[in-house]
Amino acid sequence: MTAVLLFGATGDLSRRMLLPSLYGLAVDGLLPATVRIVGTARSSLDDAAFRAMAAEALAPHVAAGLGDRSQADAFLGQLSYVPLDATDMSGYRRLAEAACGTGDCPEDQSISIFLSTAPSLFKPTIQGLAGAGLAGPNVRIGLEKPLGSDLASSAEINDAVAAAFTESQIFRIDHYLGKETVQNLLALRFANVLFEPLWRSDAISHVQITVAETVGLEGRVDFYDGAGALRDMVQNHMLQLLALVAMEPPSHFTATAVRDEKVKVLNSLRPIDSRSAATHSVTGQYAAGAVGGQPVKGYADELGRASGTETFVALKAHVDNWRWKGVPFYLRTGKRLAARKSEILIAFNDVPHSIFGDSVKGLQPNRLLISLQPQENIQLQLMSKVPGLSRGGISLRPVELDIAAKDAFADTRRRIAYEQLLLNLIEGRQTLFVRRDEVEAQWAFIDGIRKGWAENGQEPRPYTAGSWGPSAAIALIERDNASWND
Ligand code: BG6
């Protein structure tokens, strides 16, 4: 029998993602009815109140056709709740009892713990779990970000977790790795022979990774103002995307092989320091504007005070190895931008010589666009002849080849990224989770940039909410004769 323990069970992530994801697994028969799902948080709820909260969280999914009322009721019956002050060691026994019944947890019972709590609670929580017998070899622990705010604090958290769990039990979550298209990127690169010979500086001029959001602070004032876009988005999601794009082919699709290749890329990132920060990075903070036709406040107004936190960042990064020599990786992310859009663009080189001559209009380099949001899709832009008669030359136009074949998989349910991640946590597969050395390489790169900003006194530039960020971010890429894919 298995139990799932959700820390932070009454929080936003739990309601929006974790409970619906577990329910999705239950509907698909991937979470046996015997699994106990124990929620815990500070709030003094009882089982009935927690189930009512969960019922509310599931309602839109049931209404959209995921399972039915009776399946939802059966799932709610698997839930229980234990209120816990994470710093009070005496409370963890009750949690163990809720997961395993009285007595010690039997070794054949696998327990998956999902921690989405404030970083300050990681240490006491790990101690409490270990003290209550919830850190044996049968336990796996999933850790949700933020795992620290720099290399030193992340190492402290990782040390605390490592004191009770081995690395093979630790599942560091980056929810971008659970996204369908991110996994499809691996299929594209390594299940096809076509791309690999071109996947290098010989054929690729640059790579763009954009994660643009239209939302603002969303009530996460305390967390976000202490973090900023670089730590909130680049340190994790964007560097993971970069690593998946840039890594060498792993020998197997296994946790060790894939993560070995990713960490090599992360360790090959050329540091951005005070000398290069001014030319290779741009930060911004949104000012009042309009998003989707609605007026919105500026960041400082939303926050209620002036702040030096960046809500936008653009970087020009390099992976210093043979494959990527001279290929810039442009990264940008921000809140309150013009559109919600996450994508990776692989921009190929011009053909070495145009046989069509200068008079022929329309010849453009190929592009591969991997879209994660709002639509999941992969498109290859190829040049084609415009149909019709021609005299003395042909007209060319880019056409898009739809590689993800959305329609071919139209009957497949679109899943929340956490469904894949929770399933892997419960079943013990680590490929889509981030290893300690990866996290630390990511922090080392980020800490260098922050140090550069501090030394240079680089402050975020204002940008109008609803725009694509400060104009300096446009200049960052246009200086190199390229432009963002807006
Ligand atoms: C989270 C960040 O990790 O990712 C948020 O903390 C951000 O600030 C979110 O909004 C974006 O995730 P997604 O899946 O909506 O692109």
Explain this structure to me?
This protein has 15 helices and 17 strands. The chain folds into two domains: 3-172, Rossmann fold, CATH 3.40.50; 177-415 and 434-478, Dihydrodipicolinate Reductase, domain 2 (2-Layer Sandwich), CATH 3.30.360.10. A nine-stranded mixed β-sheet has the order 16-15-14-13-7-12-11-8-17, with helices on both faces. A six-stranded parallel β-sheet has the order 3-2-1-4-5-6, sandwiched between helices. It has 486 residues and is of the alpha/beta class. Strand 1 (2-7), helix 1 and strand 2 (36-41) form a beta-alpha-beta unit. 36% of the residues lie in helices and 21% in strands.
Summarize the structure.
The protein is an alpha/beta fold. The protein contains 15 helices and 17 strands.
Strand content is: 15-25%
* Small molecules in complex: 6-O-phosphono-beta-D-glucopyranose
Give the number of domains.
Answer: 2
Look up the CATH topology of the largest domain.
Dihydrodipicolinate Reductase, domain 2
Mean pLDDT: 94
Which outline best applies? Answer: globular
| Cα-atom radius of gyration | 24 Å
